[in-house]
Amino acid sequence: MKTYVRIDGGVVVELIRPMVDEEGKDVPIEARYHPDFVAALVDVTDVTPTPVQGDVYADGEFMKPEPLQESGA
Question: What tens digit of pLDDT does each residue of 22-44 get?
């Protein structure tokens, strides 16, 4: 079973977990979504820890976003 993320602007915006049918069989991602959508996904099945929404994706790697700095204003 595979896990995917959708990236927008270098940030993980969606985590797509495996899905099984009523018989417990894996439903391939290609059977669940349009091919254009699938082509834009990143397979994170073997990535540890699993990326979460808001993580940054750059140069093929996932990282936590930099903490926001409070302005002095």
Answer: 999 999 999 999 999 999 999 99
